[in-house]
Amino acid sequence: MSKVFMGVRLQRLREERKLTQAALAKMLDISPSYLNQIERNQRPLTVSILLRVGAVLGVDPQIFSEHDSAGLVADLRDAFSELPDADTSLAELKTLVENMPGVARAVVQLQSRYRMAAERAAALESQFDDGNRGISVAPPSIDEEVRDYLNQRQNYIDELDQAAELIVDASAAALQQRLAERHGVTVLASHQSGPSLERRRYDAVQKLLWLPDTISESQRAFQMAAQLGLLELPGVIESLVQAASFSSDATRDGARLALSNYFAGAVRLPYRRFLQAAEACAYDIELLAGQFGVGFEAVCHRLSTMQRPGFAGLPVFFVRVDRAGNISKRQSAAAFHFSRAGGTCPLWVVYEAFSLPGQVLRQVARMPDGSTHLWIARQVSSGPAGFMAPGKSFAIALGCDISQAHRMVYAKGLDLANPDVATPIGNGCKVCERNDCPQRAFPSILRQKAAISRLT
């Protein structure tokens, strides 16, 4: 275990509980001078002290984990890269994140709001310049805020996961019966077609749940389980939403939907049984999909949530992209991050999946900071719900750190120890420092800033 220097986090916890250094030192059975040195980052937090802090202050010792650091450091680099005169080193950003994550997140949030305001101003300017033909201005991103909340919790919500495991029969018929018997809800089929297809519609007054007649049995079960979550755990979901301090009512609504969908995934793929099956087949996604009667994407999504304390699965990253490169899902149970500002990398195997539908592709990829990962990718599609209705096609990518890759069946036959096997990829051209990339589309903002600094 690496040494943990996060004294400011400990100091903040102490001050929130209105404890003096002497009082907390006595509770931890250490000297006040020792605690003072820890809070000033002159001594590391040892494992034994971390455990005592958790017990004494009633907090999860994982709040001192560096899990979220990589993503937050990358977000800060993005934020400062857009300031022409900002002079910050990677070491300074890491120190800020490790000691004052709240301040770091506030900086990222401020930069995000500034960028959104700048984009709105540019859109309004264009509206006047082109004869007032009308340009729609995109609303703030709800998904990003909800996604950040889930990633901060390592995509694991214990309150919902434990409750979901109590539902023994997760078949569509059993869930429909549970809705009827416990909540008086009748499930009806609705005929929908076209791009405006809704997954479910609930009438709380008449207690009617409408599900499209075009979705599969597995999708029906998922939607019923999600509605069950809202009906059986409203207090739990609401307390989670309120504790997260989201910025708007729309984001809170999005969080409720995300949490109900999380519950549905946990019902369909119960934690212990699913994790044991995953370990037994070396995380063979297609085998797991067949065993549990769900799709490829559902298995990948669930694998990114298997981080129960004391009984964790393989820490993975899960991404879903479309052909245009838009990332519609991004969850990480490990320290991996793709830039928000720089886009994604065309050398990443996820884009190759569109050319080879139905095949599981593999890639050992190395980031500019030297971190290396094993990625797998496959295209998934859903057919049209009516004549001439457009279908949907995505590429699903699942990855893990190279040190954990041997646990996956997809590592068979790969020389994981050979650095020449890895494909160099990046966070996206605008924030990637590689100068020898054959696929570079834009000059690097970071390299431009470095060049300007040398000239001045």
UniProtKB/TrEMBL annotation:
Domain of life according to the entry: Bacteria
Keyword presence, Membrane: no
Keyword line: Coiled coil, DNA-binding, Transcription, Transcription regulation
SUPFAM superfamilies to which the protein is assigned, alphabetical: lambda repressor-like DNA-binding domains (SSF47413)
A Pfam cross-reference name: ScfRs
Coiled coil: 107-166
InterPro entries, alphabetized: Cro/C1-type_HTH, HTH_RamB, IrrE_HExxH, Lambda_DNA-bd_dom_sf, ScfR_C, TransReg_Diox_bact_type
GO cellular component: cytosol
Single GO term (MF): DNA-binding transcription factor activity
Keyword Transmembrane part of the UniProt annotation: no
Stretches assigned to the HTH cro/C1-type domain: 10-64
Family per record: Belongs to the short-chain fatty acyl-CoA assimilation regulator (ScfR) family.
Database matches in PANTHER family: HTH-TYPE TRANSCRIPTIONAL REGULATOR (PTHR46797), HTH-TYPE TRANSCRIPTIONAL REGULATOR SUTR (PTHR46797:SF23)
Protein name, as recorded: ImmA/IrrE family metallo-endopeptidase
Organism: Rugamonas rivuli
